[in-house]
Amino acid sequence: MGLFERDTEIYRDRDALREDYQPAELVGRDEELRTYRAALQPVINGEQPNNIFLYGKTGVGKTAATRYLLEHLKDDAAEYDDIELTVVFLNCDGLTSSYQIATRLVNEFRGEADQISTTGYPRASVYEMLWDELDACAGTVLVVLDEVDHVEDDSILYQLPRARANQNLGDAKVGIVGISNDFSFRDDLSPKVRSSLCEQEIHFPAYDATDLQKILEQRVEVAFHEDVLEPGVIPLCAAYGAKDAGDARQSIDLLMKAGDLARDDDTDVVTEDHVDGGRRALERGRIKEGITGLTQHGHLVLYALLTLELEGDAPIRSRDVRPRYTRFAEMADRDPLVPRRMRDHLSELAMLGIISVTERNEGRRGGTYREYALDMDVDLILDAMEDTVRDVGVHGSVQDFLIRGDAPDDNGAGQHGGSKGFDADRSDSASDDDGGRDLTNFGD
Ligand code: ADP
Ligand code: MG
C-alpha cells in the first residue's frame, strides 16, 4: 500500500465548500436578485448602465450574487450582435488608495507585456491611461469594485462615474458596481460621490437560521455523499452562522471543519460531536488571529495578565496588572505605556473575547471599577504571541505549558530554544516577589 491512499468516503466534492466555489444557483435571494437584475437591464438594452451599490454584512451573498448575475449577463449579452460587454472584477481588499485601484484596473485591461508598476506615475497620468483603456473597449464596461470600503480616499469613486460627463471618454459606456461590507461606508461618502456611485442601492440583509439551513442543504448535495450527515449537523451549522452575523460563510466553514474531523476519525458519518469540535477549532483560529494581530504592547499586557491569572491573582484590576506589565515591557526593551493607554489594551483584549471584564461597585463611595480575567486557554495564547514571550523571557508560571508544548502533537509553541530567561534580581516591586526567582531559561 502506498503512503497516500484516497479517502473520499465522506466528500463527493470538498472543493464545493471552499470560498472560491461559485454555486450554480443562489438560494432564497429572489427579491434581491430581481432588483439587481433590473438594475443591470440597461446593459442588454445597449443603454448607459446604472451605477449600482450593494451593501450588507459579510457572508450574505453579495459577491456570489454579483458573480452569478454577471455570468448570466455576459452569456446573454453575447446573443446580441450590437452589444460589446467587458466586465472587470476587482477585489479592493489590500488596496487602500484610489491610485492603487486605478493602476490595478489599468493592468486588468492590459496584456502581460504592458503592465504598469504600482508606483511612480503621477495620479493624473494613471487616470489618463485608465480612460484610454476604457475607451479601447468601445462598448459597455462594467467595473466591479468588491469590498470597496477598503479604499480610503474617494477620488476614483468620483472620477470613474463621471469620466464620461467630464469628456474623458469617447464611446465607452462605463458602469460601476460597488460592493461594501460596511454599512457606514456609504454614509461617509461625500454627497457628490454618493449621488453618482449609489444611483441604485441594493441591500442584502443578514440570513437567519432557516435561510442558512436551505443554503447548507443545497451545498451538502454537491459536497457530500448521500446520508453521511447526522440529522443534527445542518441545523447546528446554520445556528452557528445565524448567531451573531447571519453569515453563510461561517456556516459553510463549520460544515467543512466538521467534515474534516470526521474524515480524520476515519468514520463515514459526520456527527454533532464533529460539529462541536469544528466550532471549537474555528473559535481558536479566530482568537489566534486576533492575538497575532495585536501590537507588542497588547501582547505584553496579555502576557502580564496571563501570568497573574496562573498565579491565582485574577480577576484583577488594571492598576494591579500594571507592575507586571511594566516589568515585562522593560524586559522586552520597550517603554511602558501610561496607565490609561495600558487600560485601552485591556479593553481591546476584552472586545476580542480573549479576556473577560467584570464591572464592580466600589462600595459606599459609589464608584465602579473593572476587573479582568483570562477567558481563553493558555496554550493558545502562548502560541499566538510566541515572539513576545521570547522577547520578555519565560515566566515561571507558564513554564509547564511551554514544556508540555514540546509534545509531538504540538503546534509549535515548543520552539523557544534560546529565549532569554528572567533576571532573577528583579521583580515587580520590592515587596511583591511574584515568582521571578523561579524563572529559568527555557530550552536549556
Ligand atoms: P459576501 O460577498 O456578502 O461577503 P459571499 O457572496 O462571499 O458573501 O457569500 C459567502 C458564502 O456563502 C459563499 O461561499 C457563497 O457561495 C455562499 N452563499 C451566500 N449566499 C448564498 C445563497 N443565497 N445561496 C447559496 N450560497 C450562498
Ligand atoms: Mg464578498
TrEMBL record:
Residues 403-444 are annotated as: Disordered. SUPFAM superfamilies: P-loop containing nucleoside triphosphate hydrolases, Winged helix' DNA-binding domain. InterPro entries: AAA+_ATPase, AAA_22, Cdc6_C, Cdc6_lid, ORC1/CDC6, Orc1/Cdc6_arc, P-loop_NTPase, WH-like_DNA-bd_sf. Residues 48-203 form the AAA+ ATPase domain. Residues 422-437 have a biased composition (Basic and acidic residues). ATP binds at V60, G61, K62, T63, A64, Y207, R219. The keyword ATP-binding applies. GO terms for biological process: DNA replication. Keywords: ATP-binding, DNA replication, Nucleotide-binding. Belongs to the CDC6/cdc18 family. This is ORC1-type DNA replication protein. It comes from Candidatus Halobonum tyrrellensis G22.
